Amino acid sequence: AQSVTQPDIHITVSEGASLELRCNYSYGATPYLFWYVQSPGQGLQLLLKYFSGDTLVQGIKGFEAEFKRSQSSFNLRKPSVHWSDAAEYFCAVGVFTGGGNKLTFGTGTQLKVEL
Amino acid sequence: DADVTQTPRNRITKTGKRIMLECSQTKGHDRMYWYRQDPGLGLRLIYYSFDVKDINKGEISDGYSVSRQAQAKFSLSLESAIPNQTALYFCATSETRDQETQYFGPGTRLLVL
To answer: CA-to-CA distance for A38 and A94, rounded, in angstroms?
Structure first.
């Protein structure tokens, strides 16, 4: 079965600093990979996704992620964090089963931004 | 207006009560999902439906049931609520031609006393 690991439960960065959130997955084939963000009291918003092709994908709000097959990783990055980026971030892997797709989520990383 | 709506947004109920959470979407998507979110556990899939006549159990379906009344409506029922069903519940949708991307509603916060 597929699984997703987000090893960092909490991360604190200063505003303007760079950010990298780690995500490792376990799946036997090429996965579909996603990053979602959840702001306090809000639902999940899709930041970016990887299906195939260029392993560096760009998303909304200045985020990017790089798929590294050799490391089974899909880390999320941002060069300069803004205070409004404080939220919880979820990595997910999409797997086809019985003709349809299901998402398996990691446990999330809570990002705090210090001003 | 939001594409995926959930009602109610907050609900307090007592152990043993039957409750229903509703999800509606205006995106025209054929696939719908119910997840629950617990602190430290991320989101876990309860049920999913690929069209009106298709219902599938997810990883944690015990104690829950669903109804797909129409393409746009997908309801989650707790037949006899228990305290460990206290959680944040999310509905999501996707479409067949872009089935990997799911779009989430704002969530329903449920407290079972």
So the answer is: 18
Q: Are the Cβ atoms of B106 and A43 closer than 8 angstroms?
A: yes
Report the SS3 class of residue B91: strand
Please tell me the distance from the alpha carbon of residue B33 to that of residue B76, in angstroms, as a whole number. 10
Q: What angle do CA B7, B99, B109 make, to 5 degrees?
A: 20
Of the listed ranges A71-85, B26-40, B71-85, the least confidently predicted one is: B26-40
B100/A101 touch (CB, cutoff 8 Å), yes or no: yes
Q: Looking at residue B60, what is its pLDDT?
A: 94
Query: Before A40, cis peptide (omega within 30)?
Result: no
**Residue B47 contacts residue B40 (beta carbons within 8 Å):** no
DSSP state at residue A30:
P
Contacts of B103 in chain A (CB under 8 A): 46
Choose from A25-34, A106-115, B96-105 the range with maximum mean pLDDT. Answer: A106-115
| DSSP H or E stretch at residue A31 | none
Percent of chain A with pLDDT over 90: 73
Confidence of residue B42 (pLDDT cuts 50, 70, 90): confident
